[in-house]
Design goal:
The chain is of the alpha/beta class. 47% of the residues lie in helices and 17% in strands. It has a domain at 38-95.
């Protein structure tokens, strides 16, 4: 599948437990399979653990991990937009603010690819 010559943004999203983290690399078209997919949940957990070891405060470690996640993610977004490099992330659309990042990529003439996963529970 060829997606043209525009830089690509891939957003992998969907319900909890649908397999986003497990399947994410396989969900990209083969020619983009080399992309590292940013997973904010993993980044947050790693930072929270590191901050907890340092400060021994769950509340403080969560706050600092949230701040580190936002700063790091926005830096990645800025860098990829400026360099016109393909970018992929696992994201959640829990509120209107979640659309700001895809809009930034769209304004920078990226092609937006939203990959949505869900699962059907069999009873």
């Amino acid at each position: 599948m060829s997606l043209g010559h525009k830089p690509q943004l891939f957003i992998i999203t969907g319900s909890n437990g649908a397999g986003k983290s497990t399947l994410k690399q396989a969900l990209l078209p083969p020619e983009y399979g080399h992309l590292e997919i940013f997973d904010g949940d993993i980044f947050f957990t790693q930072k929270k653990t590191a901050f907890y070891k340092k400060f021994k405060s769950d509340k403080e470690s969560k706050k600092l991990a949230d701040e580190a996640l936002e700063e790091h993610f926005l830096m990645l977004v800025d860098n990829h937009i400026q360099s016109k490099e393909h970018f992929a992330y696992e994201g959640h659309f829990t509120g209107p603010g979640a659309w700001k990042i895809p809009e930034r990529f769209k304004d920078a003439d990226f092609q937006i690819n939203l990959i949505f996963l869900w699962f059907k529970r069999r009873c």
